[in-house]
Amino acid sequence: MIRFVDAVKTFLKEEDGPTAVEYAVMLALIVIVCLTAIRAVGTATNAKFNQIATELNAG
Length: 59
What we know:
The protein is mainly alpha-helical. The model has no long low-confidence stretch (mean pLDDT about 90). It has helices at about 1-15, 15-59.
């Protein structure tokens, strides 16, 4: 029984699990920010290309 209690105490003191979760959350936030930025740039680029195409077709 003492070994079990010691094992539980050791498990609760370890910080590997929470650290991995923190890194996963940070990675998820970075991915979300990157995807949002890429989408915004893509939308702006598409609008600019459409404007150029319209002006070229107008003569």
